[in-house]
Amino acid sequence: MDKVKYVNIDGRDIPVEGEKNLLEVIRKAGIEIPTFCYVSELSTYGACRMCMVEVEGRGLQTSCSTLPEAGLKVKTNTAAVRQIRRVALELILANHERDCTSCVKSTKCKLQDLSRKLGVEQVRFRAVQKPRVVDEANPALVRNPNKCILCGDCVRMCGEVQGVGAIDFAYRGHEVVVQPAFGKNLYQVQCVYCGQCARVCPTGALTPKSETAAVWRALQDPARTVVVQIAPAVRVALGEAFGYQPGEVTTGKIVTALRMMGFSKVFDTCFAADLTVMEEGNEFIRRFKENRALPLFTSCCPAWVKYVEQFCPEMIGNLSTCKSPQQMFGAVAKGLFSREMGIRKEDMVVVSIMPCTAKKFEARRPEFRIDGAAEVDHVITTQELAQMINEHGIQFRDLQPGSLDLPLGFKTGAGVIFGASGGVMEAALRYVYEKVEGRTLESADIREVRGEAGIREAEIILGGQTFRFAVVHSLANARQVIAGIKSGERQYHFVEFMACPAGCINGAGQPVSLDQDYARSRTSGLYGADQMLQLRKVQDNPYLKELYAERLGEVGGERAHHLLHTGYTARRRMKGKSMVIVDGQAAGKLEIRVCVGTSCYLKGSQDILHHLAQYVLVKGLSDQVQVKATFCFEKCDKGPTIKVGDKVIGHCDVNKALAAVEQAVANGAGVTGRP
Amino acid sequence: MCKPETMSEIVFKGRTGLHRVLICTGTGCVANGALDVYALFREQIRLQGIELVADFAELDNIARDSRALFISRSGCQGFCQMGPLVSVEPEGILYNKVQAADVKEIVEKTLLGGEVIERLLYVDPVTGQACRSQKDINFYKRQHRLVLAQCGDIDPESLAEYRAIGGYSAAEKAWVQMTPEQICQDILAAGLRGRGGGGFPTGRKWEMCRIQPGARKYIICNGDEGDPGAFMDRSVMEGNPHSVIEGMLIAARAIGADEGYVYVRAEYPLAVKRLRKACADALQAGILGDNVFNSGVRMRIQVMEGAGAFVCGEETALLASIEGERGMPRSKPPFPAQSGLWGRPTVINNVETLATVPLILRMGLERFRALGTNGSPGTKTFALTGHVANTGLIEVPFGVTLREIVMEIGGGITDKKGRIDPGGFKAVQIGGPSGGCLVKEHLDLKMDFDSLRSIGAMVGSGGLVCMNQSTCMVAVARYFMQFTQKESCGKCVLCREGTRQMLFLLDDIVEGRATPETLALLEELAGVVQKGSLCGLGKTAPNPVLSTLKYFPEEYLAHVRDKRCPAGECRQLARPEILAGQCKGCTLCGRKCPVKAITGEPRQVHVIDPGLCIRCGVCAQVCKFNAVTGFQG
Question: From the candidates B513, B528, B529, B539, which should be mutated to test the interface with A, based on the most A CB atoms within 10 A?
């Protein structure tokens, strides 16, 4: 055994036990060093200068970037240290929109908290805020640069943990701003709305977009019947907002609170999760037998789905066609259950309570509409529910637990663990195993899929074949797995993907905590709830059986397919404006579009464009023809691609292009309506 | 090993009748028309029927007693203010400010007639004496040109000329005869310290990197010289690019690197071009490439243009920039020698440091150590600018005094109108926006790393800006703060927000809004930014403020308490007034005033309305009777 290393902190010797930096050791010693830019799950950045301490022989050092070498003598509270922290805080505050009382983040804001703790009572510097536009074009997140303190936590989260890189620093010096590329808003770029940026944002610069006002309106509209579903992860985290320990299950109190607020029916997303397992399990068994479109990717996580559409659209076929539990719930509630309740589906409002910001985006996807109306009308996060409970004045701790409504409130343990990384896979395996093997599982606990590692893989024998599966959380890991699958280095039959680290329990809609122990507690809360249930496999859910028997017919059958399945589309491109090269004015002008996206450009589309423009001018067609340089037709493998009128021409070259235009003009295109 | 020879010694050895005309084609001289002068020389020589040699290699083809003319272009000779510079050898005549029209006369009178053209000689501004050659000019006489010696002597684009004066012999020795340990030890023993500002012992840096495990290491030359007014590195890169490459080769051998980058400011296109050519020529000659000096070892060098940010001169930001990332510094440790470019051990040296390395190996440690002081051996280049008679690029041994540089090489301080003013010295800003000011009491301070550090200043990049009595030191501090706050990368709070707030406080001071609290806050903030910033840029950004506060507290006080600028430079504090006794009522000031703030009937005393006046100073400039006062402190 190595000798234990010690670091001396304010006169006390503190053992170093694998901490990666001095800051962690100091915090272990019970001294809360202030930080903005230090998040243990991200790389060390060293920009906020708040964590400075005095190290004997080295002077002032940022403790986040100092290795905890044996024998260091550290003072954490010298005059110089206090002065730096205070001046740094004042400087940040001088460049901050200080409308704290009406800020969403008020009382949970790190800047506010540290200002109070460090006793900053005045800001001696000139207020230098230049108002910037608030980005709220998307349904999930609000980005308010006026509250940004440039700690870069969001940038590193998005890039390092999620591998998305939707936001980064732009400009220099005091002009620096965190924003999507080219100053676009989040809605226009490849953001997947996982909201992890908002989870780590210390201030109100990135926050989940609130929908509580719409929900209150619906609740108070007598013409509407409002039903609500509670996602699995909500029950183990909402309590934190009311002083309960993370992981403590408060489903009963939540039900009571929701009834008090006026929800007609309080249901459980776990029921829909059971339904998802049924459909997805069968989808898997079919693909597994046919050895087709494997590995199957789960599609419960909307951020992951958008990630695939955005970054690897060629793998959309691998995604399960099952809707997510949230959307299955909406489809069943409006499509089947409204009639049972005796109301028209137009009068039913479906609200979801989710740990997630991407669910807000998912609910608005055009794929998830039933007769023109959204399957799910409003999505509020766990945080928003806590706020509504407070706004209503409900004393949450004093509530008597209530029970969920039937039938859509009845679930098995399989549906509950959906909220944790590995849960979907475990739930599916509980079903698939019995279905394929035709015998009962000895234990419902499938430990192979549990754990914390970002990529977990295992194999079991299923129907005489080796069945390989993986569980992946966080999108940077997903990227790695996808690359491995593409290269053939990784071979699986079934992969569960969740965008958020540790799964939905750590979603951006949950009460904010950067303490990894919170995630652990919430996860064990879910597994505990699973243990407590008598029924833990979806195939045992009597109400589910009834639903299939009475309404849906066969599992994976036509009716079920119509209601519960969907498809996705590639969205690799940013919306780009096309550039008009020749601007014909004739009413019936012939439109020629030449793709100048990277792939086509490299294959010579610029040359085609050039010759086309020349040709049009030489032939005197500049009135009849409009030539545009445009972006991707999503046919990169067939590039260069051009479009003459409605005709798409792949593998195009100059001769082909000119011939096509000649023919189109000979056929009379562009001649009609010539002024 | 023998002393590096000069081109003249080589060219004229065993020859009679040969002339050499050397035209400085450094950026300054080119801007003043040196390329036209060069072209005209060639034409005139052709017209006069003189045999012309334009390439060093051709010299071997002419007879020993040929009366040919060898014409060559050199890099910067340093006396940029007097360019274009033309030397005629072997006579050693130096003509300055040569224009196209002078060329014919030089060819006819000097080359053919052996006559010196007096009007093209440099005239000493103090003694009024014409100086025939470099040796006679104080600007050169007091210098010791070591790194710059070849810069103004050889054709920077000629590998042959560089090799003729012994170039690459040091690299060859390092690769063929020396072990990496030996090289590190020799450079450490020579006492070479980094010329980029910090003065860290180069040998120790190399040794730190050498002992790191890992098959791949990198050597990087930092040519991102960004200080306003500094151009030492540019001159070396433009004037003697091979010396930089050779230094990198030696460093590569010492640390075990097989790849190198020269990171050059994109604003130095000529340096980029010449370095690229030097790399290509060296590659072709087998000096760089897969088999360096037949060692079987590979070494390649790429020239990379900078990303246009001042902060990229900071080594960790420079690394990020080469990696294709945003140029932002990161915390040290780990130091680049441990984990640098792409996480591999990397040495980053400044241009001048690397250019000194081959000279040390060629001249020997003892001779190098004999120059300069014990703690700072060798020489240092400085860019001498500001209110001084001779401006330009200079090189002196460490340990000369500020007085020698300013008064002798610089020829003394000049006043507002450019005349030498013996009592005019106020301060010298050393090290640009990261440096501090040196004042009268420092005139006899030895200029070396340790002496400067002892008074809280630093050698820095080597910019020396001389200032006379008409300079407002608060305005100087504000100028540099404006620069650094703009060039902050924006990463760390103290630098990003702190420099901006310091600028606002300085604005308050020079515009008359300051209170005593402003001064206290400025001093506190400057101290915090200095102590707490992430990188060198932030840590040194307050230096101009802190040093002017230290040496010129009364000037700050005058601005704050009396709302008065003693140097008369801060216009917002001016209280212009027309002296009734002197005003003749000529109406000129009233007509020139851009805001119609001056009223008065012809031949009557005029009056300035202080509410309307924008303190532009036009009235004082145009008044023929010196009737407008209040613009002087």
Answer: B528
pLDDT reported for residue B1: 39
Domain membership of residue B145 (yes or no) is no
Residues B269 and B304 in one domain: yes
**Per-residue pLDDT averaged across B555-574, rounded?**
92
Helix (H) or strand (E) holding A547: helix A542-547
- In this prediction, residue B142 has a pLDDT band, given cuts at 50, 70 and 90, of confident
For chain A, give me the number of helices (H) and strands (E)?
Answer: 22, 24
3-state secondary structure of A373: strand
Q: What is the pLDDT of residue A577?
A: 67
Q: Tell me, what CATH number does B428's domain have?
A: 3.10.20.600
Question: In the predicted model, is pLDDT for residue A576 greater than 90?
Answer: no
Measured in angstroms, the CA of A177 and the nearest CA of chain B are apart by: 9
Residue of chain B whose alpha carbon sits nearest to that of A173: B490
- The boundaries of the domain holding residue B103 are 7-138
Residues B466 and B497 in one domain: no
User: Which residue among B529, B561, B593 closes a domain?
Assistant: B561
Residues of B with a Cβ under 8 Å from any A Cβ are: 309, 311, 326, 328, 330-331, 333, 485-494, 496-501, 504, 521, 524-525, 528, 531-534
* Inter-chain touch A88–B528, beta carbons under 8 Å: yes
Find the mean pLDDT for residues A165-172: 95
From B309, B489, B492, residue closest to A49, measured CB to CB: B492
The per-residue pLDDT for range B103-126, each reduced to its tens digit, is 999 999 999 888 999 999 999 887
Q: Dump pLDDT digits (tens) for B155-197.
A: 999 999 999 999 999 999 999 999 999 999 999 999 999 998 7
Q: Percentage of residues in chain B with pLDDT exceeding 70?
A: 99
Structural domain count, chain B: 5
Helix (H) or strand (E) holding A6: strand A5-9
CA A377-A381-A383 angle, to 5 degrees, is: 145
* CATH number among 2.40.50.100, 3.40.30.10, 3.40.50.1220, 3.30.420.10, domain A579-666: 3.40.30.10
Shared-domain flag, residues B604 and B521: no
- Residue B489's nearest CA partner among B499, B478, B503, B476 is B499
pLDDT surpassing 60 at residue A671: no
CB contact under 8 A, B493 and A49: yes
Over residues A620-647, the pLDDT tens digits come to 888 888 898 888 787 788 889 999 988 8
What are the tokens at B16?
């009679």
Chain A residues contacting B, CB < 8 Å? 44, 46-49, 52, 59-60, 62, 64-65, 67, 80, 83-84, 87-88, 91-92, 94-95, 124-126, 128, 149-150, 152, 168-169, 171-176
Residues B326, A84: C-beta atoms closer than 8 Å: no
Across the interface, whether the CB atoms of A171 and B490 are under 8 A apart is answered: yes
Q: Which helix (H) or strand (E) holds B262?
A: strand B259-264
Taking the C-alpha atoms of residue A320 and residue A74, their distance in angstroms, rounded to an integer, is 55
Q: Which residue of B has its CA nearest to A65?
A: B331
Question: Chains A and B: how many Cβ contacts under 8 Å?
Answer: 104
Q: How far apart are CA A476 and CA A163, in angstroms?
A: 4
Q: Chain A partners of B486 at a C-beta cutoff of 8 Å?
A: 172-173
Indicate the CATH number of A92-208 among 3.40.50.300, 1.20.1530.20, 3.30.870.10, 3.30.70.20: 3.30.70.20
How many Å lie between the alpha carbon of B520 and the closest alpha carbon of chain A? 11
Residues of chain A with Cβ-Cβ distance to B490 below 8 Å are 150, 169, 171-176
Q: Output the six-digit token pair for B171.
A: 């690299």
Contacts of A52 in chain B (CB under 8 A): 532
pLDDT recorded at residue B125:
81
pLDDT, tens only, A297-344: 999 999 999 999 999 988 999 999 999 999 999 999 999 999 988 999
**Residues near A347 by beta carbon (within 8 Å), at least 6 away in sequence:** A223, A224, A225, A338
Of B344, B367, B390, which one is at a domain's C-terminal end? B367
Q: CB within 8 A of A72, min separation 6: which ones?
A: A7, A8, A22, A55, A56, A66
